[in-house]
Amino acid sequence: MQVRKYQAGTIKEAMAMVKNVLGPEAMILSTKKLENKGENSLFEIAAVPAGDHSSHTNLSSLGEVKSELMSIREMIYLLNHSGGTFERIILNPALTNLYAQLIRSGVKDHYAKLFLEKAGALNGVSTAPVKAIRERTIKAIMEVIEVRDPFTPRDKRQVVAAFVGTTGVGKTTTIAKLAAQLMLKAGKKVGLISIDNYRIGAMEQLKTYAHILGIPCFPAFTRKDLLFGLKRMQRTDVVLIDTAGQSQYDTDRIEALKKMMTNDLAISSHLLLSVATTESEMNQAALNFSPLGFQSYIFTKIDEAESCGSVINQIMRLRAPISYLTTGQNVPEDIERAHKGRILQLLLNKN
Ligand SMILES: Nc1nc2c(ncn2[C@@H]2O[C@H](COP(=O)(O)OP(=O)(O)O)[C@@H](O)[C@H]2O)c(=O)[nH]1
Ligand SMILES: [Mg+2]
Q1: I want to staple 236 with a disulfide (CB 3.0 to 4.6 A). Which of 89, 191, 269, 328 is the partner?
Q2: How far, in Å, CA of 167 to CA of 250, rounded?
């Protein structure tokens, strides 16, 4: 392995030198600021040409070494996408990697920066060991993630939960998965209601699932129907309410849905957001459905998403607990109760 060193007045210049000589696939081994007596600073990058870094490395440490290396291509990407944060942590390779993982997962730079700041990673020259700062950064991320399972309360009270979100996000499928899980794993008595206040005929799919599971399912075109259905299912443990026909752009319809469900009825709302959509669609849906006062997020289509940073961005923009994640089209398997560790894993490993 032939290590080469390049020096320049700024990290960017040094990086450009490495790129020109060794190519964009070259691997960075270290970056440091040299002690020099003059007024100008001097940076040094140590790198190896592409392909050279693995030739003499023993196999057991290869994975470890690889995860600490970063190609010039990635470094330049981060320099151009980080709004200044990257320059501040680049001299700390271990943190650079954590930061890079967050950015590659789609976490917005200002949130990534906030976590690093909270961990004390951006306070000039830190004396704390890198491992401790890394742990503190992860802790800062964990602190903003709140998980809760609103469908299996400890006490005996009945849960009535409406699933809201834009058409196609996975409401009906998620209700079917959850109904099955609650019945089979938690031994709950479950009932279903389908609110279809615009008579778009979205009932059949839910009815089919109810039939397979052998549980009651009532349609609700009006508030009166809804009250009737709830009354008939008084003895169930959980009533899951499907809502059809609202997209994030239909603010009037969302208002109408609110009118139908609120007042004296103790119905909680849960907002489904697809991780496979764009960040701005996700944000718009959350804002427009917020009059319903949703009590948890359910993030769907994790399996289709290239990365999961948008989950963190969303809870940073509008704080609410996460209850469930869905991971595929299979009913009832592809649903998971939200866990902090899993969300962190999605954030740091899935790129
Ligand atoms: N890949 C994937 N597809 C899903 C997931 N959840 C739902 N879908 C699919 O998304 C489509 C719309 O789902 P549906 O439940 O009808 O959405 P609704 O309009 O909100 O009721 C269906 O084809 C589902 O199979 C998921 O977690 N992953
Ligand atoms: Mg539906």
Answers
A1: 191
A2: 11
pTM: 0.86
Find the largest Cα–Cα distance for the chain.
83
User: What domains can be seen in the chain, in order of their start residue?
Assistant: 1-66 (no CATH), 159-341 (3.40.50.300)
Query: What 8-state DSSP symbol labels residue 10?
Result: S
Which residues, including other chains, have CB under 8 Å from residue 47's CB and lie 6 or more apart?
A: 3, 4, 5, 6, 18, 22, 26, 27, 28, 29, 72
**Model confidence pLDDT, tens digit, residues 228-242:** 999 999 999 999 999
The residue-averaged pLDDT of 283-288 equals 95
Question: pLDDT tens, 176-213?
Answer: 999 999 999 999 999 999 998 777 777 899 999 999 99
- The best mutation among 329, 335, 336, 346 to test binding of ligand 1, ranked by most ligand atoms within 8 Å of the C-beta, falls on 329
The amino acid occupying position 173 is T
Q: Does residue 227 register a pLDDT over 90?
A: yes
- 329 Cβ inside 6 Å of ligand 1: yes
Amino acid letter at 290?
S
Give the residue-averaged pLDDT of 115-139. 79
Evaluate if residue 342 carries a pLDDT over 50. yes
Q: What backbone phi and psi angles, to 5 degrees, belong to 210?
A: -60, -40
Q: Is the CB of 328 under 6 A from ligand 1?
A: yes
Q: Is the minimum distance from the CB of 169 to ligand 1 under 6 angstroms?
A: yes
Residue nearest to atom 13 of ligand 1 (CA): 170
Quote the CA–CA distance of 90 and 33 in Å, as a whole number: 10
R_g of the chain computed on alpha carbons: 25
Indicate if ligand 1 lies below 6 Å from the C-beta of 167. yes
CA of 42 to the centre of ligand 1 (A): 54
Looking at the CA of 171, name the nearest ligand.
1
